Structure formats: C-alpha cells, structure tokens
Amino acid sequence: MQAPILAANWKMQLDIAESAALAKKIANELPRGNGTVILCPTVAAMPAVSLAVSGREDILLGAQDCHNQTKGTFTGATSPAVVAELGCTYVIVGHSERRQLFGETDEVVAAKVAAAVAQGLIPILCVGETADERKKGESETVVTRQLTTALASVPPEAPCIVAYEPLWAISHGAPHPATKAEVTPILKQITTLLEKRSATPVLYGGSVLPDNVQEFVTPDAFAGALIGGASLTVESFLGIVATARRTYAI
Ligand code: 13P
Fold this sequence. Notes:
By secondary structure, the chain is α/β, with parallel strands linked by helices. It has one domain: Aldolase class I (TIM Barrel). It contains ten helices and eight strands. It has helices at 16-29, 46-52, 80-85, 96-101, 106-118, 131-135, 139-151, 180-193, 213-216, 234-249; strands at 5-9, 36-40, 59-63, 90-93, 122-127, 161-164, 202-205, 224-227. Helix 5 packs parallel to helix 7 (139-151) and helix 7 (139-151) runs parallel beside helix 8. The model has no long low-confidence stretch (mean pLDDT 96). Bound molecules: 1,3-dihydroxyacetonephosphate (13P). 1,3-dihydroxyacetonephosphate (13P) is lined by residues 9, 95, 165, 170-171, 205-208, 226-230. It is an enzyme of class 5 (isomerase).
C-alpha cells in the first residue's frame, strides 16, 4: 500500500526566517516513517528551508509556480531550471490562485506542466471548479477540461501528481470544508481520466485539517492532501500527517 503524500503550500504567508523556523520544527518533530512530506515555501526561502531540513531525506521541496520557459526576457518569473537548481523535486502548477489572480489559462498551465516535466520536476497539477461552476452543475466538465488540456502533451509515463482543490472549499482565512460525499464523484472522474497514465496520485486540497483529513485521505479515496492554512503551524501540519499515516496503516 502506498503511503500518503502530504504537501504544505505556504503560499505568501511566511517570510524567509519564518519559513526556515517552521521547516526546522517540522524536521525536528516529524516522526520518521512511511509517506512523503513536501514543503512548498515562497521561492526565495528555498535555500533556507533546504538547509533547515537537511538530513531529512523524507522531506522534499516544491516550488509554488514556475514559468513555461527556461530562459528569456520574463521579468519577475522563475525558470523551472532554477526551481530544479534550488533542490526542488516538485512544482505546483495551475493553483486556483494563479488561475484567478494572475490570469493563467488552461493553455498557460499546460505549457508550465510541460516545461516542469522537461526539467525533470514532478508537477503538482491543481484542478478545481468555482462555487458558481458547481452551482451550475459544471464541476465535471471544468475539471475534465483543466486536466485534459494540462496533460495533453505530457507523456503518460512522466511522473505527475494531480491535486483536486474545489475553490469553494479553499479556506482563504476561515476553513469551510467540503464533505467526502461532495468530492467523491469528482475523484472518480479524475481517476478515470488518468487511467491511461502510469500511477498518478490524486491529492485533495481545501480546508484540510487534523480532524477532517481522515475523510479525504484513505487508501480508497485520495492519496494525500495539499494543505494551505493548516500547514502554517507545526502542530496542525504534523497532526494532519499523523492522522493520514494512521488511516493508511489500518
Ligand atoms: P487551505 O488548506 O487553506 O484551504 O488551502 C488549500 C490550498 O489552496 C492548498 O493549495
């Protein structure tokens, strides 16, 4: 049985010193055991976080975004080559905040996924529908479009992770979790769409907390979680890791 993948997306919530301090606490307190823990700090904090977790091969790094070109006149952008150079194994691509606040289209996301894969990074491809799309009954259509466009040019054997993050369940301050029953149909849909690819873990994201992670992350549901707000303290993040690992071991 595969162990759960728990990824912390710290968004733009912590500065470099805070990121390093949190990473250090996680490195000191995370029990050695099964499963993958991924930390995704702001990119400038990567060297400090990398140093803070050195010696813990079970804690891996991810960037929160990258550009779709490796070099060029793209002021302010981060090359996937630099992401790799910083020691990242993963890169989050197509997060809903990038799509909504930075205008990333499905085509831009697809180009970023392709660039990440070409660089040898494992993309954590985020998909998910808005509250409005859900109300109109468009959840399946939206997620199918996002997923098929993003993976169209990615060889089926290329390692990739998909994160289903319904926008209506993302906390933005106050958690308002979905229920397992609400998200299971979309998980089934995603699993079907991924059938022809080699094992692609599907994570869940959206107000994941220590006391609801067992609803989503189980051997017969999601393979792990992408956690925002609750990954910002060592207590809640390691609480989530412990519960998910326990659920998987049963
Ligand atoms: P929350 O866990 O704060 O809802 O954030 C989810 C998310 O956007 C992770 O990428």
